[in-house]
Design a protein that fits this description.
Elements lengths: L1 H5 L6 H8 L9 H8 L9 H11 L4 H11 L2 H8 L7 E4 L4 E4 L3 E5 L1 E3 L5 E6 L2 E2 L7 E5 L8 E9 L2 E4 L3 E6 L4 H6 L7 E5 L4 E3 L5 E4 L1 E4 L4 E6 L2 E2 L7 E4 L8 E8 L4 E3 L3 E5 L9 H7 L19 E8 L11 H15 L3 E6 L3 H14 L4 E9 L2 E4 L2 E4 L14 E2 H9 L5 E7 L23 E5 L9 E4 L2 E4 H9 L6 H12 L12 E4 L21 H7 L8 E4 L5 E10 L2 E10 L4 E9 L25 H4 L8 E6 L9 E10 L6 E8 L12
Parallel strand pairs: 2-10, 12-20, 21-22, 21-23, 23-27, 27-28
Antiparallel strand pairs: 1-4, 3-7, 5-6, 5-8, 8-9, 8-10, 11-14, 13-17, 15-16, 15-18, 18-19, 18-20, 24-25, 25-26, 28-31, 29-30, 32-33, 33-34, 34-36, 35-37, 37-38
């Protein structure tokens, strides 16, 4: 009905678009307005319907739309829409329970939206408060000394009414124990009574934090996680049900009113790491020093192996340093081989420091009982100072120091503390001295756990090299590691063979040699079998990590003109996804059509010059020949990088451009598509 009224009227859809655009997020571009106007060329096309669809995609409310129609003075359209907008009363600001000091005044506030002429009435218990007919109720606490009171507000318009929630007002004497110990009177007008407390939870638990304050005007609250506001967390209590590792971090609460602001203490919330029992086996071994060495002791049992996991990181496109070529091919080749050995592999390219740290933290959470082997591989720039090695993220400044990088020894210490049968750390990076860094990190000594193997692609104060082979480059280390990785050998024996092979390469002899360190006492091999986990053994954390390689399902989009488009996905790495579009059905009277991606989130790394390409080789991927094997022909390809940066679900527009036979001009139709959080985006590394 709105389309009939607005499509051809002088005060029509264009005027509506102009008025709606007064709010920036509803403003339509010239291209979008032209797309709406072209709808008149379609058999059942409507410019108004196209405009309303654009407004709906931007979360425009019916009430806002009604306001625009009222400003247009279009009475008929207003009557049509008014029937769809129910004149319901909605409480927008609820009164908050408060603990206040004796002798002060406290105010409770209730605000509501609805039809004109809203009437407020406050109640104390079941009794009306005389004269309390405004949104704010001011209470003299002298009349409440020591007695808690409950207040509620009724909002009505004629016979329609609703109630606010109850607010509890508790008056504390200044000499009471809770006042003396619960808060410090350091900020006149606003004091925190109850501070949030740190907690350690398992996945699936409920997170509950509380921050209580007193003040006049009443305090308002905003919770923060890792110094970023938590959406919708504006109450004294923060509660999150069924938590995952995405909720862990440092939490604080900003408490404020019209005149003052104060912050709660910052507390740590740990998710997924329960207290670990310390193994007593090494201590028993040491206490038996008097036992003759000729006695044969039984071998230690192999752990209940339910998983093998690997995190592979390759940094190439540095913002302030030399670009590298080999990590793309090395990470891909290593990942393919590890999957043959039943490893769960997550492979990531081009990470900033915070993203590297979060990825390593997620990896460390997995290295617990039941995980047989954990392997962490890093390829990129690095350096070594005073015996400590550092991995350099892509956002490191030109004169970087240890504070801009990840310390290898710190990560190794964390790996050693896990109850994993085998921990492997492989560093494919240079180990030259960094003259900009004279800080000696206090890392502490590594523990004796007899379960760790780590190796460098080169020796101390030496460089690691790449081999150019046509358009592709391999690092020297992975070039030789690939030859031996699938062999059924103890991991230290396998790496010794790699070192021997590297020594035969003439061009790097005397420049690069693998350095191996190990305290592994048992025979542990990458080929050792694992047992599939039972239902009780498979934690929510492992399932979440496994989802990091789940692609969105292929889908078919049907457009009004009768064209059907297939939308498909392929993974190049855990944070790089290929999206392809293909026309699978079209009416006979359409001569030509193609579907392109548009409006990809800005935070992702997308080269617009390499999107919607007719061949896989044109999207800028050196591995196109590998991932394109599973893609159909006659597609348009786009390469989406940096999925770890995704702040919300991945949404984009599919724009169908088509031309009818005998007509030169193209027509466009668009559909908005949401594919959720694909691949590594599910782990919320931001």
């Amino acid at each position: 009905r709105l389309c009939e009224l607005l499509d051809n009227a002088g005060r029509g859809w264009r005027k509506l678009a102009e008025l709606a655009g007064a709010e920036k997020r509803f403003k339509c571009s010239a291209e979008e307005l032209e797309m709406c106007s072209l709808k008149v060329l379609e058999p059942r096309g409507s410019p108004t319907q196209c405009l309303l669809q654009l407004l709906a995609e931007r979360d425009c409310t019916l009430r806002y739309l009604l306001g625009c129609l009222e400003r247009m003075g279009h009475e008929q359209a207003c009557r049509v829409l008014s029937s769809a907008v129910q004149d319901m009363i909605r409480i927008t600001v609820q009164p908050e329970s408060q603990v206040v000091a004796e002798g002060t005044h406290v105010s409770l506030t209730c605000c509501a939206t609805g039809p004109p002429g809203l009437v407020y009435q406050w109640f104390c218990g079941r009794q009306e408060v005389p004269g309390a007919t405004s949104p704010e109720l001011v209470i003299d606490t002298a009349a409440l000394a020591g007695q808690p009171e409950w207040y509620i507000c009724r909002v009505n318009c004629g016979a329609t009414f609703t109630f606010s929630r109850w607010a509890h007002v508790q008056v504390e004497k200044s000499s009471s124990p809770s006042s003396a110990s619960g808060y410090c009177l350091t900020m006149a007008g606003l004091q925190i009574l109850r501070q949030p407390r740190p907690c350690c939870l398992a996945e699936g638990d409920t997170l509950a934090l509380e921050c209580r304050a007193i003040g006049n005007p009443p305090p308002q609250y905003q919770w923060f996680r890792n110094q970023c506001p938590v959406e919708g967390a504006q109450a004294p209590q923060l509660q999150v049900k069924l938590v995952t590792t995405a909720e862990r971090g440092r939490y604080s609460c900003r408490v404020f009113n019209l005149f003052h602001e104060v912050w709660s203490q910052e507390v740590d919330v740990e998710i997924g790491e329960g207290p670990r029992q310390t193994s007593v086996t090494p201590h028993l071994h040491c206490s038996q020093a008097g036992v003759s060495h000729s006695i044969t002791t039984p071998p230690s049992p192999v752990p209940a192996a339910t998983d093998k996991v690997a995190l592979l990181i390759g940094n190439m496109h540095y913002l302030h340093h030399k670009q590298l070529q080999a990590p793309t091919v090395d990470v891909h080749a290593l990942g393919a081989l590890l999957r043959q050995l039943d490893f769960k592999v997550v492979s990531l390219l081009d990470l900033r420091k915070a993203e590297m740290q979060m990825a390593v933290d997620e990896f460390l959470l997995l290295l617990d009982k039941g995980v047989y082997a954990g392997l962490l591989y890093y390829a990129g720039h690095g350096y070594e100072n005073f015996g400590n090695s550092f991995m350099v993220p892509i956002d490191a400044p030109s004169a970087y120091t240890s504070e801009h990088c990840l310390c290898v020894q710190r990560v190794l210490r964390e790996m050693q503390q896990r109850r994993t049968g085998l921990n492997i750390f492989l560093l494919d990076m240079c180990r030259k001295r960094n003259l900009n860094d004279d800080i000696i990190p206090q890392v502490g000594a590594l523990e004796v756990t007899a379960n760790i193997v780590f190796g460098y692609a080169t020796c101390a104060d030496a460089e690691a090299y790449e081999l150019s082979q046509g358009e592709l480059s391999n690092g020297i280390f992975v070039t030789f590691l690939k030859r031996w990785l699938l062999e059924d050998e103890k991991i230290t024996v396998l790496l010794d063979k790699v070192a021997e092979d590297m020594g035969t390469l003439e061009i790097t002899r005397g420049r690069q040699a693998l350095e191996l360190r190990s305290n592994l006492s048992e025979r542990r091999a990458l080929t050792d079998p694992i047992h599939p986990p039972g239902q009780d053994e498979s934690s929510a954390r492992n399932l979440q990590w496994a989802k990091a390689h789940v692609l969105p399902e292929s889908r078919h989009l049907r457009f009004d003109c009768g064209v059907t488009v297939q939308l498909g996905f392929a993974a190049e790495f855990s944070n790089i996804m290929i999206i392809y579009t293909r026309v699978v059905a079209a009416p006979k009277d359409i001569a030509k059509c193609e579907a392109r991606l548009m409006d990809i989130p800005e935070e992702l790394d997308v080269d617009l010059k390499c999107t919607n390409k007719e061949s896989p080789e044109e999207v800028g991927s050196p591995l196109a020949s590998v991932w394109s094997l599973g893609c159909p022909s006659c597609c348009l390809y786009s390469r989406i990088c940096g999925l770890q940066k995704l702040q919300q679900e991945l949404a984009f527009t599919v724009c169908l451009q088509y031309r009818y036979q005998g007509v030169d001009d193209f027509v466009e139709e668009r559909q908005r598509v949401n594919v959720g959080r694909p691949l590594i985006a599910k782990l919320n590394l931001q």
